[in-house]
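Translate sequence into structure tokens.
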Amino acid sequence: MSHYPKLDFDNENPTAPSSSSSSKKWSITPLGARILTLVSLIVSIVIMKTNNISFKDGGLELTVDYNYVHTYRYAVFSMVAGFAYTLVQIPFAIYYLKTGKRLINHRLFSYLEFYGDKLSAFLLATAVGAVFGVTSELKRGADRLQGDDQSKYDNFLNLGYISGGFLLIAFVGSAVTAIKSSLALS
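Result follows.
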């Protein structure tokens, strides 16, 4: 009758509700969050790596890309690390969704997932802050540029903001999986 689990304080495992729809929704959450994280990171990496501008000053040509700004390099490193970790975790989430069991049902793997999710989430969170912070600071310095150079530089920085936005979405997905892995240990 009730959709809430029956609580038996003498037993460590409460009985599950009669319908498996709520457990199915709960098991799809990590997979959905990991896919959201993966797709957002792909988009963010592509934007950041393809974003560049060229300035001509007399006979000298200067090309500015993510390598020119150290903070953007850190963000790309964070994105690639988060992408690799998420890519490794997706098969485990698919298996869990299909079977309702963990592929590796060992406490050590649960701890590895727990700490990996936390590290990934914090790495992406610091990258989000770094990208938005440095882009904001660089925007202030863009006022000294004139004409076409200022327009190019603004476009470069706006794409930095867009990449940071997708990175923020990836962080939210990673944070959801970090919360889920915390609950799995409790």
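Note: Helices lie at 21-50, 70-99, 107-141, 147-185.
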